[in-house]
Amino acid sequence: MRGGPSGGARRRAGLSMAAEHKTKLSKNLLRMKFMQRGLDSETKKQLEEEEKKIISEEHWYLDLPELKEKESFIIEEQSFLLCEDLLYGRMSFRGFNPEVEKLMLQMNAKNKEEVVEDETVELDVSDEEMARRYETLVGTIGKKFAKKRDRANYEEDENGDIKPVKAKKMFLKPQD
Amino acid sequence: MAEAAGVAAEFFASNRARAARAVLDQVVLPGEELLLPEQEDGEGPGGAGERPLRLNAGARSRVRVVCGPGLRRCGDRLLVTKCGRLRHREPGGGGGGVYWVDSQQKRYVPVKGDHVIGIVTAKSGDIFKVDVGGSEPASLSYLAFEGATKRNRPNVQVGDLIYGQFVVANKDMEPEMVCIDSCGRANGMGVIGQDGLLFKVTLGLIRKLLAPDCEILQEVGKLYPLEIVFGMNGRIWVKAKTIQQTLILANILEACEHMTADQRKQIFSRLAES
Q: Which of A74, A76, A81 is the closest to B113 by Cβ?
């Protein structure tokens, strides 16, 4: 029985494949991750270096001798702001424009860098107590939003303290 | 004038670079080279004996010196490019100091960071063209105002006065200005209000008036309620309650450049009486 034209083609292809033994795979295919798992680390490094060479050859660069840049200690600035302490440009006198007068105080104070002394605020609650409360608070609120499975982690001890959360079992990717 | 001529004669005679420290507050001419303090050791005649011996004579500790307007870097020295008086300021922290030439001119060259008064000349698409007195009009984007969004456009018309600062200003590109600071706040920049008078003065006068200890402004402030805006491009905008007061103020500010302190006090006392 005749297999038809497709059958004949397959048989022919099979014969030719057996004759060639190696099919030539393209470079891009070889660079793919699944093809590189079987290679040694050395071959991998070689491949990487070759790739880098290709990339760096394509980059353009100036073919000039290396000029040593002299470190200059003089900086050129064309602005007068560095040289002289100038006041802010908008001014208002005797209450003509109250907003500008407020601005004047603000900007000129910034220029002169008046340091505002930080007033130490007296604490109502001490730091230790704050830390204690916060510790328990995190657990209580966390319990509220935890899913049923995670609530097991929030089991309480005899004293009523919340046990530390156990490490969850994560999906482990299979090693090759 | 005799002092300047003497200085020039000495320069052309000796043609040697002078120490910057020695020339402070004196008139310098374009083309002069100035030595920074560290370089005077070998050059000056009496230098060798004064400096104490250093362990590593080769490596001197160099401090960063800033050369300001009117000066350029020429190798290790400063080259003067404008005529005027050489000034110096010691820094608060960090190293070196600032040297600059205190010169006088009327033509403004845009400099990054300067606050200027500009006049809106055209409105094209998303930007305004603002005339700041330089070689080209600066561009001002309509989003560069406080609280401006694409839907909420600022109310700026052709002919309005704008107080803003430069973000881009060099000889290769068109200057760009904005009316907000780096945090996005206006800080007094933006459209300057209605009425008032805009007039032009020299750049040196603006710097003199904006100096921290300026007596002229303190005396002016005592006359009557008024508002002034100074632009570093030589433009001043003044406003007072009546037109006459505004004009008096404008005349005083223009004239005080060439008046001595006594003449100024006379004028102020006369004004205070009337």
A: A81
- Pairing of β A74-76 and β B65-67: parallel
What mean pLDDT comes out for the span A132-142?
Answer: 82
B66: chain A residues, CB-CB within 8 Å: 74-77, 82
ipTM of the complex: 0.75
Residue that is written with structure tokens 């800033």 in the block: B66
- Which one of A73, A76, A78 would you mutate to disrupt binding with B, by most B Cβ within 10 Å of its Cβ? A78
Q: Do B134 and B120 belong together in one domain?
A: yes
Q: What Å distances lie between residue B142 and B57, B84, B121, B186, B226, CA to CA?
A: 58, 40, 14, 13, 30
- In one-letter notation, the amino acid at residue A11 is R
Residue B254 within any structural domain of the chain: yes
Q: Which tens digits make up the pLDDT trace of B47-93?
A: 444 445 545 444 445 678 888 898 998 888 889 999 999 988 887 66
Regarding whether B119 and B73 lie in a shared domain, the answer is: no
Whether B52 is covered by a domain: the verdict is no
Q: Which residue range(s) make up the domain with B213? A: 197-273
